[in-house]
Automatic annotation (TrEMBL):
Ranges annotated as spanning the membrane: 9-26, 46-65, 129-147, 159-182, 213-237, 243-262, 292-316
Protein name: Membrane protein
Lineage: Bacteria, Pseudomonadati, Bacteroidota, Flavobacteriia, Flavobacteriales
Key word Cell cycle present: no
Localization per Swiss-Prot or TrEMBL: Cell membrane
Membrane-related topology note: Multi-pass membrane protein
């Protein structure tokens, strides 16, 4: 019962936030501005949107291929098709419940390829660490490129002191929990130890894999495709086609973080994209239209291929 309540809350709260941000965005515009936004949608060049979707598809296919570099040291080499369908089904699960996609990915390769769930989850955590390092480099680079504009914005918008305190508290709680598990030997603690051990095997697989340079190449390729998917969409609207690369980077970074706020960035992605672009003198109506075009492109791709993956998985693996 408690688990069901937790799942419901973790799904409903982000969705509610997304709905609120959409309502707030719509109500702050006048009738003339709403008409203006509709005009942008109507006159957008959607061929660029199609090209951006192809970039997004290539990034996810590369992620599926890269996964086997980490699974190989553990003695597993799932089929690329199963990896790809696990990745896409994971993204559509994130649309339903934030951060559930990582668990569903591990479940797919466990069910259809026999990879132990904890080890599969460990490799996913390891690849997320690698992705966070790349994102961190992009964030730092963006900050130095646009330091004059972003410094004041971040100081006013981000509660750095509160986040630091919260981070320290969560760290201490985590250390306390691990210490308790390590010191006790009851049945629950032993299960947790085994699970943590499996996850650690998965995480450490990144240091044992043979094709480290190939892993690095695909990691960089994935993020280049993410950025390309975002960047190409600026040409869908004449009003955004002349945006400088530094401005695009700033919006890209903000968009990357907002995906965690709500179900796949629903409501929050276009809202915060529009907000950050106003710092660079892009009208809010233009930023809102641009944000929704980028988000809808991602949403359509993930829902289509995610739903297709969920349908095809049992048929593709009918003999297992």
């Amino acid at each position: 019962m408690k688990v069901n309540i937790k799942k419901t809350v973790s799904t409903i709260l982000p969705l509610t936030l997304g709905v609120f941000l959409i309502w707030y965005s719509v109500n702050k515009f006048s009738a003339e501005q709403i008409t203006e936004i509709k005009h942008y949608f109507k006159n957008a060049n959607y061929w660029y949107v199609v090209i951006s979707i192809l970039c997004g598809f290539a990034s996810h296919l590369s992620r599926a291929y890269r996964w086997n570099f980490m699974l190989a040291p553990l003695g597993y080499k799932p089929k690329l098709a199963n990896n790809a369908m696990a990745v896409f089904s994971g993204y559509i699960m994130n649309m339903a419940a934030p951060r559930s996609g990582e668990f569903s990915r591990a479940l797919v390769v466990h069910k259809y390829e026999g990879v132990p769930y904890d080890k599969a989850l460990g490799t996913i955590i390891a690849e997320r660490v690698a992705d966070l390092l790349i994102l961190g480099i992009i964030v730092v680079s963006t900050f130095f490129i646009q330091v004059d504009v972003l410094k004041g914005y971040l100081t006013n918008m981000v509660p750095i002191k509160t986040l630091t305190i919260l981070g320290v508290v969560l760290l201490l709680l985590g250390i306390g929990f691990l210490w308790f598990v390590y010191k006790t030997n009851n049945a629950i603690s032993l299960k947790i130890k085994g699970f943590i051990s499996g996850i650690m095997d998965g995480i450490l697989s990144i240091s044992k894999m043979e094709k480290k340079w190939a892993f690095l190449f695909h990691t960089l390729f994935i993020w280049c495709m993410y950025l390309a998917m975002f960047y190409i969409n600026i040409y869908a609207l004449p009003e955004t086609s002349n945006m400088q690369f530094g401005v695009v980077l700033s919006a890209f970074v903000v968009g990357s973080f907002t995906i965690a706020f709500t179900n796949g960035g629903f409501g929050s992605y276009p809202f915060f994209i529009a907000e950050i672009l106003t710092l660079f003198d892009v009208p809010n109506t233009v930023g809102t239209a641009f944000g929704w075009i980028v988000w809808i492109a991602q949403f359509v791709m993930l829902v289509f291929f995610g739903a297709l993956s969920l349908i095809l998985l049992p048929f593709y693996n009918k003999n297992k």
